[in-house]
Every structure is written in C-alpha cells, then in structure tokens.
Write a structure and sequence with these properties.
This protein is α+β, with helices and mostly antiparallel strands. Helix content is about 35%, strand content about 20%. The structure holds 2-oxoglutaric acid and fe (ii) ion. It comes from Stylosanthes scabra.
Length: about 325
Amino acid sequence: MESQQTHTNNSSHNLSLPLIDFTTEENVTPGTDSWVSACEEVRHALEDHGGFLALYDKVGSEVYESVYSSMEQLFDLPVETKKRNTTQKPIFSYSGQLSRIPLYESVGIVHALSVDECRNFTHVMWPQGNHSFCESVNSYAKQLQGLDQVVKRMLFESYGIENKKLECLLDSTDYVLRGYKYRTPKAGESNLGVAPHSDTAFLTILNQKVEGLGVKLKNGDWFEVGVSPSLYLVMGGDALMVWSNNRIPACEHRVLVNSKTERYSMGLLSYINKIMEAQEEFVDDQNPLHYKPFDHYGYLRFFLSDEALKSDSRIKAYCGI
Ligand SMILES: O=C(O)CCC(=O)C(=O)O
Ligand SMILES: [Fe+2]
C-alpha cells in the first residue's frame, strides 16, 4: 500500500492510476452522495485508462494468505496433474511451458463461485482431497464477485442504463478464477512475465502477492501496482470495449518478474455467455457503431486461431464494422 500512496499526484505530467475506495459503507450504498461520486470516479477511470485500483477489504488477510498458499500447493503439482483439468469452454484451463513467455504458468478454475465446481476441481487435482484449497478458493472468488458486481452496477448507473440490462448482463456472466505463477528468470533470461496485452474478458479483477504488474496509463507511462490483501486492479477487457462501443478502452497491462522471488497473482475474469451488442447509449452520429453483435466464446476461439495471430487488432478482425 505504501507504494500506492506515493503515486497520488494527478497532474497531467505525472499521471497515476486512480485509487477508488470500496471499503466505506456509503461509497457502496446506492443512493448516497458518496455512491454517486464513486460511480463517476469509476466511469472516468475506465474511460481514461481502461482500469483503476480498488481499495477493497472484504477478502481479509486470512483468506488472502490461505488462497495464496493454496495456489502454491496447486502449482507445485506435476504439470500432467495440472493439465488434467479441462473445460468445454475455449478458456485455457492450464497454460504454461510457453516458449514466448517461459516464466509464466496459469490455472483457471471455471465457475469457482460454485462450491460443487470447486470440489470437482479439487478432486481432479487431489483425488485424496484438499479441503482448505476448496474452501479458500471458493470464498476468495465470492468476495471478488462482490467487487465485480458493484463495479458493473456503478458503471450502468453512471451511464443511466436501466437496471434490467444490468441484471441481464449479470445473469449471462461466467466467471473464471485464475491463479498465476512466474518462476524467476535464469541468468541471461528476460524478466518478462507477460508482454503488454489487453484481456479478452469483460472485466478482470487482479490481485498480486508479489509485485510486477504494470498498467499503461493514457499518457503512455507504466504504472506499477502495489501489493496488499486490499488492493485490486480492476480492468476493462476487449468485451467491455465492444459493449461501450470504444468509450472504454481495453486496459493494457504487463508483468515483469524480479530475479529473486517467484511471483504469484490471482484474478477473477468475467465472460458473457450470450450474444452481446454495443449499448445504444454509446451510438450516435458522432460515434457510429464500431462492432457487430459479439459472441464472447466465438471471440475466444478466434483469438487462438492462426488468422487472429496475423491481425494487429484481434477484436476488430473478429467483429469490427
Ligand atoms: O499475473 C498477473 O498479474 C496478470 C497476468 C495476465 O495479465 C494475464 O495472464 O492475462
Ligand atoms: Fe492479462
């Protein structure tokens, strides 16, 4: 947290990523003045940088410590075991040993909000059982979903979009909880954990146990995210850019790994399981419609194709008008 405080100068020469407080009851209670101004902050941060930092204390240090120690146990399993978990959805369940980014490994737990799904996942990884893994992952995912939904509610409200549409979006959302591990670079090896990119998700909420996560601000500077159980990076992904008809840019971020400490981080990513269109609120004469109706899982399948690799903007290549 200390490092965050040193970045609060908002002059145009020294931009920082806005830090928005979700820990006070008034800020997260619809109808209060604080709620209305928090909604504005969320909207401006997303429009400016595609993301912001959330101060959010619902996870607590106990769950934070136990979920990260669970992740250590998970990544310590043999690669063959980690690969055992598969999903019908075109979301990587396990990703690692990639020549482009050799330090990186990631495991996705689809529907981690359901205790049953967490149990199934845990059983696949540890047939003998691992109760604390199941418990901590499920409660962590639930707390992150709370933040995800409040952010979406704020966003809809600040644009004056009716509540029914929010409910419909939330009902059509699939969540994936992802754990990331980065080994330290060997002598002569690059310290690049993940190259600059935007996520394919609608919204991503990331937290890290070890520093390394950077966000590109609208002036092009890289902002380094701090480490704390109550600090979460909220980022719009490609799907939010489609939904907002380019009003909200997909947040560019990257990971650098320091030479001494293995890095762990975790994120909750949301995907839309129905065809989604850019909202009419964002389309007018000055802002023509930029995207065709969008099939999120279709996009994920496209994203992994050879054709997509050739294009400089995969989202435009997939559904741009
Ligand atoms: O490790 C992190 O903090 C972020 C990883 C990431 O951006 C990704 O895999 O898309
Ligand atoms: Fe990412």
